[in-house]
Amino acid sequence: MSAISRYETLAMLPRMAKLLLLSCVVALLAGTASAFFLHSLVWATAMRDSHRYLLCLLPLAGFVVGWVYLRYGSRVEAGNNLLIDEIHDPTRIIPLRMVPLVLWGTVMSHLFGASVGREGTAVQMGGALADQLTHLLKLSNADRRILLMCGIAAGFASVFGTPLAGAVFALEVLAIGRMRYDALFPCLLAAIVADQVGLAWGVLHTHYAIQFIPAISGWTLLATLVAGALFGLAGKLFADSTHALAARIKRLVKYPPLRPLLGGLLLLAIVWPTGADRYIGLGIPVIVDAFQQPLAPYDFAAKLGLTVLSLASGFKGGEVTPLFYIGATLGNALSPLLHMPFSLLAGLGFVAVFAGAANTPLASTIMAMELFGSEVGIYAALACVASYYFSGHSGIYRSQRIAHGKHRPFPRGLKLSELAAWRQRQSD
Fold it and tell me: Which strand (E) or helix (H) includes residue 414?
């Protein structure tokens, strides 16, 4: 080994030690916060299931959450998009109040019956808690970026029990077509430790099992590609519908707390008389059923519609678990059409709709192998990549940058939220 190589190796050690310590601290904070959050969701779901009349309070709960965010949370209302923006263009430390606000707001959404998820909450808590170390330790912008990514990785990993997917998600979600490998070590460590911290606090993750994985053949590969394309279109429909409806509601209803109030009234009018309780909350039992038995072919559409309405009207929570639900039930419905095992297509849909909607095919493929076993890897990779391409340049995170276009070149660094205006300028 040359003298230069030895010097580079030795010079790297202090930074590695620093990143190791910081990532472990972030993991401890994020894993603990996620554990408290998940236990709170279990309580909220059990309360709602045993006291159905709580649905009647959904509009009021929406108004209260909306008012609290208007009064105290305007700086953090952007949620995951705020984290992505701060990683790309650091400006101000994320306020610590993001943690209690998003936790309380999401628990209220689940307690009273909105159709939302949980990933967004865990990621926001992880990122906000991590960013407090920036101020405390006076970190540089470069270290702050890595710290925020560690918070995202830790939050994602601890809420789903998928540390490898959590680490890759934090690297992949920032920009379409580019990953930040300089943060690989701390994100991986933060994700692994946060997952273990959650388990130590008694978190129990749902087990999903693909009952049969067929041998690879021409037909199974073709069917997987077709299903992946449909999963990508479903992810695109979800993302585009949520953004379009949210923009329309904001134009029509100027006072923010009224938006979830009106959305809650509409949700109540749909769910209460029809008994459509299976489409609200996380919907974990329905996801499990999608792996075990044939379900109604319209389940995915009903969940998609109620989730779009819930998120667009301002209820707090994530998008990912509803995307799991939509994907698993859509895969279940496609099974007889593609002559593939319904549990396999449910598993592929589970990860592939998310891959298309979040533009994270690698993280989604790794998640499939963590949840269902390595044997599903080839099918999952095909489905997730096909979904990624067929979802186009849309996504649930509007602050994602385009580093490399999927089908055509775009200006480097263009946000998804800026894409429509750019296309309009090009056509003029």
Answer: strand 414-415
DSSP states along 320-360 = HHHHHHHHHHHHHHHHHHHT--HHHHHHHHHHHHHHHHHT-
Predicted TM-score of the model (pTM): 0.95
- Indicate the residue type of 107: V
What is the tens place of the pLDDT at every residue in 281-307?
A: 999 999 999 999 999 999 999 999 999
What is the CATH number that goes with domain 11-200?
A: 1.10.3080.10
Measured CA to CA, the distance from residue 366 to residue 190 in angstroms comes to 17
pLDDT at 4: 54
Tokens 């593609």 locate to: 338
Distances (CA, A) of 117 to 28, 283, 294, 333, 407: 23, 9, 24, 22, 30
Where along the chain do its domains lie?
11-200, 218-397
Which of the following CATH numbers is that of domain 218-397: 3.40.1410.10, 1.10.3080.10, 3.40.50.300, 1.20.1070.10? 1.10.3080.10
Strand partners, 414: 402
Say if 11-200 and 218-397 have the same CATH topology. Answer: yes
What distance in Å separates the CA atoms of residue 370 and residue 273, rounded to the nearest whole number? 39
The model's pLDDT over 325-362, given as tens digits with 9 standing for 90+, comes to 999 999 999 999 999 999 999 999 999 999 999 999 99
